[in-house]
Specification:
Mean pLDDT: 95
Number of domains: 2
CATH superfamily of the largest domain: Aminoglycoside phosphotransferase (APH), C-terminal lobe
Number of helices: 12
Strand order of the largest sheet: 1-2-3-5-4
Structural class: alpha+beta
Helix content: 40-55%
Low-confidence stretches: none
Shape: globular
Strand content: 15-25%
Largest sheet: 5 strands, antiparallel
Number of strands: 10
CATH topology of the largest domain: Aminoglycoside 3'-phosphotransferase, Chain: A, domain 2
Length: 309
């Protein structure tokens, strides 16, 4: 499918509506914020009774690969989590081959809400951090149900992608802590402590949470839905807080999460080291304000100490 237009065509919309809303009278399309890995549109349909219905059409960018896998994963995750009372968009349609949508993708119900970006509205984010921690605990307590495990990623393998080669990637060599982290994770992964296998989002940060009327209305972007050690999600959320200089909020997040789960987080320092590698892929993009480079190195030093205690 590479080389096809990224625009959602009228033909694709008509094919979709024939299956989901055959009695529609009109429709319009509005682009929604997406990521490098997908194209996302809001489809607003008017029925014969003039009532409006809003759908989100999410198609995966073929330049980034694994489009069919992403479609299957996200649809399966949304179906199970929505049924388990986790606030995620209700999945309505799966198109693995792109026969209807032009690219592999899914269609969900629209959920009202906007992100509270930690970097842009730190005070508001911190004021709601209790909800963020409790929501992650709820996700990690949700059963897998009948989701085929081979549809999901193995998060422990996925988030340690950087050790697959025989030496550290160049972006890790360029950071003063990169080679240390590479060796530590490479040596430690086969001996990771026993953990409970749970849902892992892999990208649990402020940009993937929608808020409406003071509540989390949806956790979005499940294309990397996985099973594995939930401590990685905790580590990734803590990384965002520590980079913003919100150490007390990070400690509160961890305290509330552990209280909700009824047990301490194991392997946290190990997964904090692994989580830090995403930052090394784009240091200037992640660490773009005064003090962030120093806080990043402090986060790494703290994680290493925790991992070796």
């Amino acid at each position: 499918m590479t080389g096809q237009s990224t625009k959602l065509s009228d033909e694709s919309i008509r094919k979709l509506l024939e299956q989901l809303s055959p009695n529609y009278s009109s429709y319009r399309i509005e682009p929604l914020a997406a990521s490098y890995s997908n194209f996302t549109d809001l489809l607003i349909i008017k029925g014969a009774d003039r009532d409006e219905q809003k759908l989100v059409v999410r198609r995966y960018n073929p330049e980034n690969g694994d489009c069919e896998g992403k479609a299957r994963r996200e649809f399966a995750a949304l179906r199970q989590l929505h049924g388990g009372d986790i606030p995620v968009p209700k999945p309505l349609f799966l198109d693995v081959e792109g026969d209807t949508l032009g690219l592999a993708g899914i269609v969900t119900e629209f959920v009202p809400g906007q992100p509270i970006f930690a970097a842009e509205d730190t005070e508001k984010w911190i004021a709601n951090i209790d909800q963020v921690a409790r929501m992650l605990a709820r996700i990690h307590s949700t059963p897998f149900g009948d989701v085929p495990m081979d549809v999901l990623m193995d998060s422990n393998a996925e988030v340690s992608w950087f050790i697959r080669g025989n030496e550290p990637p160049s972006y890790m060599k360029q950071h003063p802590d990169g080679e240390m982290i590479w060796q530590f994770v490479r040596d430690g992964l086969p001996h990771i402590q026993a953990y409970e296998r749970v849902w892992v989002h892999i990208d649990y940060w402020s940009g993937n949470m929608l808020w409406h009327d003071g509540q989390i209305s949806a956790i979005v972007d499940w294309e990397e839905a996985a099973y594995g050690d939930g401590a990685y999600d905790v580590a990734y959320a803590l990384l965002e807080l520590y980079l913003e200089g919100q150490d007390e909020a990070a400690e509160r997040f961890l305290h509330i999460y552990e209280a909700e789960r009824g047990k301490p987080v194991t392997n946290l320092g190990f997964w904090e080291l692994a989580a830090s590698v995403r930052t090394m892929l784009d240091l200037d993009g992640w660490l773009n304000r005064p003090g962030m480079h120093e806080r990043f190195r402090q986060f790494i030093a703290r994680a290493k100490k925790l991992a070796t205690e």
